[in-house]
Amino acid sequence: MTDKQIVAGSNSKHVEPQYVEMMVPLYSYGCEKKVKKTLSHLKGIYSVMVDHNQQKVTVWGICNKYDVLSTVRSKRKYARFWKLEDNTVIEMEQQGEKSPPGSGSASASAPPSLAPMKAGSLSWKAWKKVFTRSYSF
């Protein structure tokens, strides 16, 4: 026992828990429970507080706030940070991933049109369901 020496880990980072506040659209108490359950399973999360009236979710724990946001966005698509400056960082990163506005065609970024399907694409059974014969006059 006398040969062993205890060395303090001064090189290691001291990680403190942080609060992550997000604005999450919550339509019902079921949405609230779904978000709370999803966040409680993340590693390093100590508590999750959901305020249905303010549409606010507060997470406290040792975590990366961008990972927390991506986890919430898997359940609620339009979730964002409560502070505006955090949202601008994310928007700039998303714009960097997209192609520049001058390159490519405009139709690539447009949603697909709802043009009618070709008549030959339907099978005989599908046509039969659409146009059923009725002999009653």
TrEMBL record:
Entry superkingdom: Eukaryota
SUPFAM superfamilies the UniProt entry points to: HMA, heavy metal-associated domain
Domain HMA: 17-84
GO molecular function, one term: metal ion binding
Region span, Disordered: 92-120
Matches recorded under InterPro entries: HMA_dom, HMA_dom_sf
Keywords in alphabetical order: Metal-binding
Compositional bias segments (type: Low complexity): 99-116
Protein name (record): HEAVY METAL ASSOCIATED PROTEIN 37
Source species of the chain: Hibiscus trionum
